[in-house]
Q: What sequence folds into this?
C-alpha cells in the first residue's frame, strides 16, 4: 500500500495466473491489520482488465480515501478467478505491439505507445482495452494505467494508444502491457 498526497491509501495486489488456461472474473479482499493482528478494515480489490492469460500477471487495486487508520501491514486474499469458457467467442485474439517504451528521467513514470489490431476474420465489433503494469526491481506491482478505445473496433481494425503509468513509490524497473478485446454490446 502507498500513501497518496491527499492522505488516502492506494493498495495493489499482484496476482499471477499459474494455471494452464486463461482466467477471468478476478476479485479479492484486502485487509489492513493493526500491530496486535486485528483487522481494521477489509475492502474489495478489482483488476483493470477482466482477462488474464495463462502465466499472465494482473493487478487488483483499491483506493482508501482519507483518513486511513494507522495499520501495521496489509493482507490480501483472492476470492475469485474463473477459467475462461468459450474463449474464442468471448475474447478476440488481438495482435498488439509496443511501438515505443520510454521510462521517465526519474523512473517514477513510464510511457508506452501501443498498437492493437483485430484479425480481419473476426466476426464482431470488439471493445478493446489495454493496461500497463509498472514493476519495481523486486517484481512488485507499483502502479498501473488503463486505456479503452473510444469506439469499438471492426474486424481488421486497429487503434493506437499512449499510456503513462506512474509509480506509487519506488522507481520503475520494467513494465508489462496487457490487452483484451470483448464483444461490444
A:
Amino acid at each position: 500500500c502507498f500513501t497518496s498526497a491527499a492522505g488516502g491509501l492506494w493498495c495493489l495486489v499482484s496476482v499471477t495466473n499459474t494455471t494452464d488456461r486463461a482466467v477471468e472474473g478476478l476479485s479479492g479482499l484486502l485487509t489492513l491489520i493493526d500491530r496486535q493482528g486485528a483487522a481494521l478494515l477489509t475492502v474489495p480489490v478489482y483488476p483493470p482488465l477482466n482477462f488474464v492469460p495463462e502465466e499472465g500477471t494482473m493487478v487488483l487495486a483499491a483506493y482508501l480515501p482519507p483518513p486511513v487508520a494507522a495499520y501495521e501491514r496489509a493482507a490480501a486474499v483472492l476470492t475469485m478467478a474463473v477459467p475462461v469458457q468459450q474463449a474464442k467467442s468471448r475474447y478476440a485474439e488481438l495482435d498488439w505491439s509496443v511501438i515505443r517504451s520510454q521510462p521517465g528521467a526519474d523512473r517514477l513514470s513510464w510511457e508506452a505507445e501501443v498498437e492493437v489490431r483485430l484479425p480481419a476474420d473476426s466476426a464482431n465489433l470488439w471493445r478493446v482495452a489495454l493496461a500497463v503494469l509498472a514493476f519495481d526491481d523486486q517484481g512488485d506491482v507499483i502502479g498501473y494505467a488503463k486505456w479503452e478505445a473510444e469506439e469499438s473496433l471492426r474486424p481488421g481494425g486497429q487503434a493506437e494508444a499512449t499510456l503513462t503509468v506512474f509509480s506509487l513509490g519506488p522507481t520503475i524497473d520494467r513494465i508489462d502491457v496487457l490487452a483484451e478485446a470483448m464483444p461490444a454490446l
Notes: The first helix runs from residue 87 to 90. Helices lie at 87-90. The mean pLDDT is 93. The two ends are 35 Å apart (CA to CA).
